[in-house]
Write a structure and sequence with these properties.
This protein is of the alpha+beta class. Helices cover 31% and strands 27% of the residues.
């Protein structure tokens, strides 16, 4: 999605900086959580405290909803601690229409 110019990676990085909570306070990242852009379309979040992957997935979904992309993109865990954005599979039902 980032290579298709649909998903703005820098805006998502800024969103994470603004929304991630540390010790129940927003914008309290300090040295415990670092967010950096890695290459084309990748963001790396390094946490030196306990950090839930589900929380990152929740924030990603919230960003997608805000950008009105939630209908086309989904968050998928490819391995432990790694999340990707993928397009929903839209199957063409043209073959079913011909049978009727």
């Amino acid at each position: 999605p980032a290579s298709d110019k649909i998903f703005d990676v820098s805006a998502f990085e800024k969103f994470l900086h603004e929304k991630i909570k540390v010790d129940n306070r927003v914008g309290n990242l300090g040295d415990t959580v670092q967010i950096s852009q890695q290459g084309e379309g990748k963001i790396e979040v390094v946490a030196h405290i306990q950090f839930s992957g589900r929380y990152l997935k929740y924030l990603t979904k919230k960003f997608l909803k805000k950008q009105q992309l939630r209908d086309w993109l989904r968050v998928v865990s490819t391995s432990q601690g790694v999340y990707e954005l993928r397009f929903f599979n839209v199957a063409n039902d043209e073959a079913d229409d011909d049978d009727e």
